């Protein structure tokens, strides 16, 4: 029996579609906080103080990616940190609801993984709600697989999966 979060055999990342979404990737700016906080509230059902985004962005600025629309308004983001030597962790990752399935998440993930390799990281990890089958399928397309069940991980008591992938 296969877990829905098992890595699909024979489906390398290079087989994903190559279309480019109509966004620009750039680094995080303090003025992005209201937009990022709104995306977090809607997509991740969490609320954080602005100071959290500021402190995390200063630790690894290249790991906090913003996807902005043509008016430079953030529509998605990926916040990566490094808390363990030679390992990157996706702490938060979300795309505005009306911008999903446009390749923005793919662009963010590919750029993040490239930056991890540039820093010499050996592994990338993330956590995801066990109920979020769409996200789990997305991550498996990038060769993430479940490595642990995190009981009562989220603030509402839901379990999470820790997923990881090597960075060759």
Write the layout of secondary structure elements.
Layout: E1 24-27, H1 33-44, H2 50-59, E2 64-68, E3 74-84, E4 87-95, H3 104-118, E5 123-129, H4 133-140, E6 145-150, E7 160-166
Parallel strand pairs: 4-5
Antiparallel strand pairs: 1-2, 2-3, 3-4, 5-7, 6-7
List keywords for this structure.
168 residues, alpha+beta, Aminopeptidase, 7 strands
What does this structure look like?
- This protein is an alpha+beta fold and 168 residues long.
- The protein has a domain of 114 residues: 3-Layer(aba) Sandwich (Aminopeptidase), CATH 3.40.630.
- The chain is 27% helix and 29% strand.
- The protein has a 7-stranded mixed β-sheet with strand order 1-2-3-4-5-7-6, with helices on both faces.
- The two termini are 28 Å apart.
- The N terminus is likely disordered.
CATH H level of the domain at 14-127: which superfamily? Gcn5-related N-acetyltransferase (GNAT)
User: Regions with pLDDT < 50 over 5+ consecutive residues?
Assistant: 1-17
Second CATH tier, the architecture of the domain at 14-127:
3-Layer(aba) Sandwich
Widest β-sheet, arrangement of strands: 1-2-3-4-5-7-6
Major beta sheet summary: 7 strands, mixed
What class would the helix/strand composition place it in? alpha+beta
Total number of helical segments?
4
Query: How much beta, percentage-wise?
Result: 25-35%
* Apparent shape: globular
In CATH, what is the class of the domain at 14-127? Answer: Alpha Beta
Q: Mean pLDDT score, rounded?
A: 89
- Helix share bin: 25-40%
Q: CATH topology of the domain at 14-127, anyone? A: Aminopeptidase
Radius of gyration: 15 Å
Helix and strand sequence: EHHEEEHEHEE
Number of strands: 7
End-to-end CA span: 28 Å
């Amino acid at each position: 029996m296969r877990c829905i979060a098992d890595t699909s055999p024979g489906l390398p990342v290079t087989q994903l579609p190559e279309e480019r979404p109509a966004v620009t990737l750039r680094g995080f700016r303090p003025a992005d906080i209201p937009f990022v906080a709104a995306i977090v509230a809607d997509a991740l059902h969490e609320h954080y103080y602005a100071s959290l985004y500021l402190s995390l962005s200063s630790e690894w600025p290249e790991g906090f990616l913003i996807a902005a629309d043509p008016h430079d308004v953030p529509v998605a983001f990926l916040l990566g940190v490094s808390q363990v030597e030679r390992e990157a962790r996706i702490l938060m990752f979300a795309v505005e609801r009306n911008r999903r399935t446009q390749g923005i998440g793919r662009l963010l993930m590919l750029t993040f993984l490239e930056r991890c390799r540039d820093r010499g990281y050996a592994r990338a990890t993330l956590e995801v709600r066990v109920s979020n089958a769409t996200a789990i399928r997305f991550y498996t397309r990038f060769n993430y697989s479940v490595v642990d069940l995190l009981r009562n991980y989220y603030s509402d008591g839901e379990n999470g999966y820790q997923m990881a992938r090597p960075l060759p």
